[in-house]
User: What shape does this take?
Amino acid sequence: MDESAPPRSWLDRIDEIARQHPDVPVLTMADATGEILSWRDLSWRSAGVAWAFAACGVRQGTTVSIQLPNSLAFVLAALAAWRLGATVAPIRWDLPAPERAQLVALARPALVITEAGGGDGEMAAAQVAAAPPVDPAGFWPMPIAVPAWMTASGGSTGAPKLIAPKVTTAMGEASGMGFTGGRSNFADNRDHRHPVHLVCTPLYHMHGFSLLFRTLTEDFRVVIMDKFEPEPFLDLVEREKVNFLALVPTIAVRLLKSPTIRNRDLSSIENVILGAGATPDWAIRELIALTSPETIKLGYGMSESLAASFLRGDEWLEHPGSVGKVINAETLVVDEDGRPLPVGEVGELYFRPTNGGEAFRYVGDSVPRTLPGGWASVGDLGRLDAEGYLYIADRRTDMVKTGGSNVFVSEVEAALLQHADVADVAVIGLPDPEWTRRVHAVVQLRPGADPAGMDAVLRGHCKALLAAYKAPRSFEFVAELGRTDAGKINRQALTRAREPQSEREQA
Assistant: This one.
């Protein structure tokens, strides 16, 4: 190997595949356009967009902000930015204008891609999609983007910020997605040349975004949904013979509540990556039963790329509730005063990357939670067992302290979601004169379910599964919970909106 040769980028790899089999389909849009791109199309069209971006001042070290729903323009814009060595900053396209403006101000992009365009420094999605193809040979060697992306955060906490993880577009470097060796390699069992990846999560969220481009560099064919719905999703799995899926917990639960899923042909599915930290145990068991223990890969990670863990379904069955062993960092569990806790006790999780250096930085005024010695936290609570397996309890800011006891809202939500009439739920803590904070459930019932008397039904359901003090003391029924397409919900906003109100309460 010539060590003096410039490092190869993800776009070098995509162009290489395009030269190997230019006419093989690579990208299918499962939207109203139904557009299908070959490898040549993807390579040449993204190069054409890059020429247009360069004319707008995009170059190595700058940022391109993409504010689009799942679309062909989104994919082409990201690839074009990386061709020029620019960082990509995906931002939710449907955010309120003031919040979106805050994030754009933090990103300081050279170019913003929006649906309509027209503003200063903006380009419309239609302009991206219509850019004429260009021979990508003119871009070689391509610069490396450092970082590859910046992630907009704040959907859960209400505090907008950008996260810049230590991820670059250089081939051979850690991708920041936690895949190492055969243990978690989703391509292990494929017996065909172009396995199919169905993207069902929004591309502004790192879960869908990072895995889309990771699988492209591994010669997958990618099918992209513009928006997840259970039945169209299952139709695509059957029709496209999908091999690889990545699911967030809310999507997994919605799928399992589909009335047709148990009659569907899921035999093509070889690998499912499942964010396991907030996925109810009952849902994991059902997914394993529908596929196989070897098919399900459960994991834990965060936008900061501070740490990651993975385990396969058969290993999870031996360690139920676990998200695996952390594979790229040391783990420390501490109490509220920062003192280390013994094995088995729940506390705040701090991680220290084993490769040294900072794993991420926040852009703006946000400051990471740290401890001396290079430890950092993103606010998750959890525990380690004697074998080193990690178990996630909750977010530090989501835990409810009621009557002197700690209640982890994810545990209560998992119990409620087992009830057939519950479509979605968010559990929060509200002020209470007797309990200081009481456990309150905001419930979205399945269509057609009658909320009359449901308080008592759901409280009894929870008490059959949980300790009595964890069962919600008050309930509220809403038509729509208001999650984002990525499954996020702003609990602080839910709490603030309800704190002055008197809620229905039952002794």
The first helix runs from residue 10 to 20. The first strand starts at residue 25 and ends at 30.
